[in-house]
């Protein structure tokens, strides 16, 4: 039985006071038994957020990391630094990083390994562009990205990965994939993991849907056989909306 996971990806939003006010507002509410609740925030918010969620079941994640432990990489943050702060999760390979910051399948894989070296759980994003969907390449794109991300992972590591299937055309556009379409792709990703490892590993991996998820549609996604949660951008920024998302994942 996989524990559903709702992760808010705040992207480049919120100052430290805004972030800690948010936690005060959702404490005790965005905490639902049987649902994991994770806030992935900008680096600058992480120390204050780790402190603010103490005594709650809410976990904190980063939105990126560098694959090296340390070194001459101006402006970068390593997994070692994140672990030192008390962060539990890290988003890797979000489409915005692939599009604007030259993230590749190879760097995604290196970052997944860096996450495990530092005892962080990676939330690995995969998903197709609109033109790829229209060309019928959705599954092929997801296959290439998934296989690259998992390369070299041991079975026990693979089982802990959270995959977020985010069709790029659905991100921040209000155009969500239907729950059935998302479930079909996610079930396909699970069969890929079965082929890479085995059925029990694939059954342990949690696979989220992401792309215009909101309180009004989260229950429909969660009702699907293979969807284990959501990676949510815009609708995770307001406390009431975030609480409703976590409640909707029950
Ligand atoms: O990481 C989250 C996704 O990019 C989805 O963003 P969105 O919920 O604003 O569409």
UniProtKB/TrEMBL annotation:
Signal sequence annotation: none
Superkingdom assignment: Bacteria
Enzyme Commission number(s) of this protein: 5.3.1.1
Active site per the UniProt annotation: 94 (electrophile), 166 (proton acceptor)
Catalytic activity: D-glyceraldehyde 3-phosphate = dihydroxyacetone phosphate
UniProt xrefs under Pfam families: TIM
InterPro entries registered for this protein in UniProt: Aldolase_TIM, TIM_sf, TrioseP_Isoase_bac/euk, Triosephosphate_isomerase, Triosephosphate_isomerase_AS
Keyword set includes Isomerase: yes
Pathway info: Carbohydrate degradation; glycolysis; D-glyceraldehyde 3-phosphate from glycerone phosphate: step 1/1; Carbohydrate biosynthesis; gluconeogenesis
Keywords per UniProt: Cytoplasm, Gluconeogenesis, Glycolysis, Isomerase
Residue positions binding substrate: 9-11, 172, 212, 233-234
Keyword hit for Cytoplasm: yes
Gene Ontology molecular function: any one: triose-phosphate isomerase activity
Cellular localization per UniProt: Cytoplasm
EC main group: isomerase
Function in brief: Involved in the gluconeogenesis. Catalyzes stereospecifically the conversion of dihydroxyacetone phosphate (DHAP) to D-glyceraldehyde-3-phosphate (G3P).
Annotated family: Belongs to the triosephosphate isomerase family.
Subunit structure: Homodimer.
Protein name: Triosephosphate isomerase
Taxonomic lineage from the root: Bacteria, Bacillati, Bacillota, Bacilli, Bacillales
């Amino acid at each position: 039985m996989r524990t559903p996971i709702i992760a808010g990806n705040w992207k480049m939003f919120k100052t430290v006071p805004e972030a800690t006010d948010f936690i005060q507002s959702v404490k005790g509410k965005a905490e639902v038994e049987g649902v994991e609740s994770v806030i992935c925030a900008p680096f600058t918010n992480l120390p204050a957020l780790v402190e603010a969620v103490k005594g709650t079941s809410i976990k904190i994640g980063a939105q990126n990391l560098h694959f090296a432990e340390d070194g001459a990489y101006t402006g970068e943050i390593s997994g070692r630094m994140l672990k030192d702060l008390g962060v539990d999760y890290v988003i890797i390979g979000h489409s915005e990083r692939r599009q604007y910051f030259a993230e590749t399948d190879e760097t995604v894989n290196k970052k997944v390994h860096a996450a495990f070296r530092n005892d962080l759980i990676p939330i690995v994003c995969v998903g197709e562009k609109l033109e790829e969907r229209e060309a019928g390449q959705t599954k092929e794109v997801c296959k290439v990205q998934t296989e690259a991300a998992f390369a070299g992972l041991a079975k026990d590591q693979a089982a802990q990965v959270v995959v977020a299937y985010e069709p790029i055309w659905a991100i921040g556009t209000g155009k969500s994939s239907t729950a059935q379409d998302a479930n079909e792709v996610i079930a396909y990703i699970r069969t890929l993991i079965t082929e890479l490892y085995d059925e029990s590993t694939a059954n342990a991996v949690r696979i989220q849907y992401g792309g215009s998820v909101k309180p009004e549609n989260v229950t429909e996604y969660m009702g699907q056989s293979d969807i284990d949660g959501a990676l949510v951008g815009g609708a995770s920024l307001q406390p009431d909306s975030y609480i409703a998302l976590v409640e909707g994942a029950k």
